[in-house]
Specification:
There is one protein chain. With 194 residues, the chain is α+β, with helices and mostly antiparallel strands. The protein contains six helices and five strands; from the N terminus they run αααββββαααβ. It has two domains: 54 residues, SAP domain (Transcription Termination Factor Rho, Rna-binding Domain, Chain A, Domain 1, Orthogonal Bundle), CATH 1.10.720.30; 101 residues, Ribonuclease H-like superfamily/Ribonuclease H (Nucleotidyltransferase, domain 5, 2-Layer Sandwich). Strands 1, 2, 3, 4 and 5 form a five-stranded mixed β-sheet that branches. Helix 1 runs antiparallel to helix 3 and helix 2 packs across helix 3. The N terminus is likely disordered.
């Protein structure tokens, strides 16, 4: 039979177990904090080099590169913890990290639109990246990217002008997932930070 996902570490009588999944006293969080401190001290070139080593996007301003590398390490550490503490309830995790239109200061009235739709397919048994999907998206509400957006994401106006609009890209993602038998032969979860 199929294993059931553990939604929480609560026992059936309602008492919380000593090692709750939300317990930040776990040593893994200290490791993550130490790694984050190291990443904060890295130069832009060191960040780009480390991201390239992990086959991650190397474009963007230094703060974006730091966040990307921190997220990568955090996800790796937490997945290792899950792997050690028991089998995952999913065969795959689809890690999504959208890029979107933006303005400096992000005014409240500004409508953000996805301009990059990337998915990294991670095998939960091996913790290896098995495949990736990546397409740019043409924004329709604010079709002209701000200089701030271009600088922040590294995505140029020319790139989005040549891209498909969101409904088509979403269909492409669904087809990509269907070809990999996600949701039919293999169970999966979508993981995003944002």
């Amino acid at each position: 039979g199929r294993q059931h996902c553990r939604i929480s570490d609560q026992e059936t009588n309602g008492k919380t177990s000593a090692a709750s999944s939300n317990d930040f006293s776990d040593p893994i969080y200290k490791e993550i904090a130490i790694t984050n401190g190291y990443i904060n001290r890295m130069t832009r070139e060191e960040l780009r080099s480390k991201l390239a080593e992990f086959k991650l996007e190397t474009r963007g301003v230094k703060d974006v590169l730091k966040k990307r590398l921190k997220n990568y390490y955090k996800k790796q550490k937490l997945m290792q913890k899950e792997h050690i503490s028991g089998d995952s309830c999913y065969d795959y995790i689809c890690v999504v990290d959208f890029e979107a239109t933006c303005e400096e200061g992000n005014p409240p009235e500004f409508v953000h639109e996805i301009i990059e739709f990337p998915v990294v397919l991670v095998n939960t048994r091996t913790l290896e990246i098995e495949d990736t999907f990546q397409q740019y998206v043409k924004p329709e509400i604010n079709p002209k990217l701000s200089d701030f957006c271009i600088s922040l994401t590294g995505i140029t106006q020319d790139i989005v002008d040549k891209a498909d609009i969101f409904p088509q890209v979403l269909q492409n993602v669904i087809e990509w997932m269907r070809q990999r038998e996600l949701g039919t032969k293999y169970s999966y979860s979508i993981l995003t930070d944002g």
